[in-house]
Design brief:
This protein is an alpha+beta fold. It contains 9 helices and 12 strands. It has 4 domains: about 150 residues, Beta-Lactamase (2-Layer Sandwich), CATH 3.30.450; about 45 residues, no CATH class; about 60 residues; about 140 residues, Histidine kinase-like ATPase, C-terminal domain (Heat Shock Protein 90, 2-Layer Sandwich), CATH 3.30.565. It has a 5-stranded antiparallel β-sheet, sandwiched between helices. It has a 5-stranded mixed β-sheet with strand order 7-9-10-12-11.
Length: about 475
């Protein structure tokens, strides 16, 4: 059974039970009310007759007595008197009501005892009667009334209530179907969009958000998921395009050199052959570096998301990277610690990002110049004396494979600063680049406040010294 039918059954069944319960309650209430009215009528007639019978001699009634008794005779009730002996019944009006032991017991109660009465349902001449037996001075008074009209009324009411219950249940089922259809319409659209995405591999099947309830939240989450998938696919496609473009240049150069050596090996002087082979070695190293950085760039964000961040200090990470950079490049790397503090971070990602910043500074700074690193509790920046970064390119330098016109001749893949931006984003911060006073550039990144454990610089927004 589909979810729509289950919802219809639940809604229709619930409403049907409510209608049936209300109908049953109405039927019982009507029955009690009608019986109460009959009982009040019998009690009223009994009180009226009792006042009359107190002045009568039912053993030998006179003409006046007979007249008074006749005055009690009405077509809407049967009435008879049971004498105290219990052996004689004087019928005042209506059919004879068969005596029961309880009637005789009431008639034989002693004079002066508290008045008692009994109400019961009986059959008289195949007709249902409501009978009141009440004690009087001369015995017991029995007043009865046919309840055929009451039974007929209740029978008609029962028929109407059954009809109302049936039609109400059908209407409830119809309304339940409409409600289920309206409620499940967004779910159906979601299922259709999911099927479309699965079959076409396209992520443009956004859902229309019509409500702000849970279903609207589900549609919004689905649209967000599609948006993330679209961005991921676009990023993958852009990575493939950019990688193929970047790989094409060294591969073309390598193919050219290989073809040159294959065709003119014997004709080339040994010095020229050595030069070509050195070029090939450089191209291979560039391909190796580019491939490594491609893998690192493609997996850095996902890898950071699954790493356990731990308490650490940026100054400790910066010192390790500075020592390694100085040893490899022969440059002096000066660290200016302006604030101390701990953060929650991934030391591998941070070392990678800081290493890329220092590597760029070494690459673009004049030979023999000092590299300056400024460290705060939640920020690190690397300052160089290179050609600087034009204002129009200060944001674009963090894009994958972006290389300005002034740096295209230098070795590099254009991925180093993109990795810096990824690491900064994973730590709730951002990467930045700006010109340095006196020439050069200041490139660094910040750590988000949520990752800061100990703040050592209350004036952390002041300008970094160049």
């Amino acid at each position: 059974m589909s979810l729509r039918w289950r919802l219809t059954a639940v809604i229709g069944g619930t409403v049907a039970l409510m209608i049936a319960g209300a109908s049953l309650l109405a039927f019982l209430s009507a029955g009690r009310e009608l019986n109460r009215q009959v009982d009040e009528f019998l009690l009223s007639r009994a009180r009226e007759a009792e006042e009359t019978f107190r002045t009568l001699d039912l053993g030998s009634p006179s003409i006046d007595d007979a007249f008074q008794v006749g005055a009690l005779t009405r077509p809407d009730a049967s009435m008879q008197v049971v004498q105290r002996s219990g052996g004689r019944v004087v019928v005042v009006s209506g059919p004879v009501i068969e005596l029961r032991d309880s009637d005789v017991d009431i008639a034989q109660r002693r004079v002066g005892e508290d008045r008692v009465f009994d109400l019961s349902n009986r059959t008289v001449n195949d007709t249902n009667y409501r009978i009141l037996t009440s004690s009087i001075d001369s015995g017991a008074l029995m007043v009865g009334r046919s309840v055929a009209e009451v039974d007929q009324t209740l029978t008609g009411l029962r028929g109407w209530l059954i009809a109302i219950s049936v039609f109400g249940s059908l209407a409830a089922a119809f309304v339940g179907w409409l409600v289920a259809d309206r409620v499940l319409r967004p779910v159906s659209r979601l299922a259709e969009a999911t099927r479309q995405v699965s079959e076409t591999r396209r992520f443009d099947a956004d859902l229309r958000v019509d409500t702000s309830d849970e279903l609207g939240a589900l549609a919004t989450s689905f649209n967000s998921m599609l948006s993330t998938l679209r961005a991921s696919r676009e990023q993958q496609q852009r990575l493939v395009r950019d990688a193929s473009h970047e790989l094409r240049t060294p591969l073309t150069s390598l193919r050219t050199n290989v073809d040159l050596l294959r065709r003119r090996w014997d004709q080339l002087p040994s010095a020229e052959r050595m030069h070509v082979m050195e070029d090939m070695d450089g191209e291979i190293r560039e391909l190796t570096d580019l491939t490594s950085e491609l893998v690192e760039s493609a997996t850095e964000s996902e890898t950071l998301a699954h790493r356990d961040f731990e308490p650490l200090r940026l100054i400790d990470v910066a010192r390790r990277v500075a020592e390694r950079t100085g040893r490899r490049s022969g440059r002096e790397v000066a660290i200016d610690e302006q604030a101390a503090g701990e953060i929650r971070g991934d030391h591998r990602g941070l070392e990678r990002a800081i290493g890329n910043l220092m590597g760029n500074a070494v690459k673009f700074s004049p030979e023999g110049s000092e590299i300056e690193v400024i460290v705060r509790a939640n920020e690190i920046s690397v300052c160089d004396r290179g050609p600087g970064i034009p204002a129009a390119e200060q944001d674009r330098v963090f894009d994958r494979f972006y290389r300005s016109d002034t740096t295209r001749t230098l070795q590099g893949s254009g991925l180093g600063l993109a990795i810096v931006a990824d690491v900064a984003a994973a730590h709730g911060g951002h990467a930045y680049a700006r010109p340095r006073t006196g020439g050069g550039a200041v490139v660094g990144f910040t750590i988000g406040a949520d990752f800061l454990l100990v703040s050592g610089d209350p004036d952390g927004e002041e300008e970094l010294s160049p």
